[in-house]
Design goal:
Blueprint: H1 2-31, H2 37-58, H3 65-80, E1 86-91, E2 97-102, H4 103-109, E3 117-122, H5 123-128, H6 135-142
Antiparallel strand pairs: 1-2, 1-3
Helix pairs in contact: 1-2, 1-3, 2-3
């Protein structure tokens, strides 16, 4: 009976958060298209289950359960994608590049970039298919060789 109640609660929050979950999945798939939507939906359900358990254990009082679960799902989904494929460009107020950081480093230092513009890019897409030309051709042209 307890498991049945828990399953109903998971399904309830999954249905309530489904539009937000789908939005997160679209963003996650933008970074890593190799991850299947169904896998991410299953991860979201597991995150809800784990989030409910932690919500009770931590006796969270200053945040709504639904918001806490959304945060938990977001963390879980973005950990699932290959974070090494994402690079964060940090731009100052004038649009000048301050730094380009891999995802893991960016998340450790993101408090330092308050007020700056953050842009993300998928490394494989940007490196492998820049302007539709193969990487070897672009590199050769930069070095002054004819291709």
């Amino acid at each position: 009976m307890c498991d049945d109640l828990k399953e109903k609660e998971i399904e309830y929050f999954f249905s309530k958060l489904k539009p937000s979950i789908m939005s997160l999945i679209r963003k996650a798939r933008g970074f890593d298209g190799t991850v299947e939507t169904e896998d991410l939906l299953n991860e979201a359900k597991m995150a809800i289950s784990e989030g409910l358990r932690k919500f009770r254990r931590w006796r969270v009082k200053n945040i709504k359960k639904k918001n806490f679960l959304f945060w938990f799902i977001q963390r879980r989904l973005f950990q699932k994608i290959d974070a090494n494929r994402v690079v964060y460009d940090i731009l100052d107020a004038r649009g000048n590049l301050v730094a380009s950081l891999p995802a893991r480093e960016f998340f450790r230092k993101k408090g330092e970039f308050v007020g700056m513009t953050i842009k993300t890019k998928n490394v494989f897409v940007d490196i492998e298919n820049h302007n539709g030309r193969p990487a070897e051709e672009r590199l050769a042209r930069k070095e002054g060789e004819s291709v």
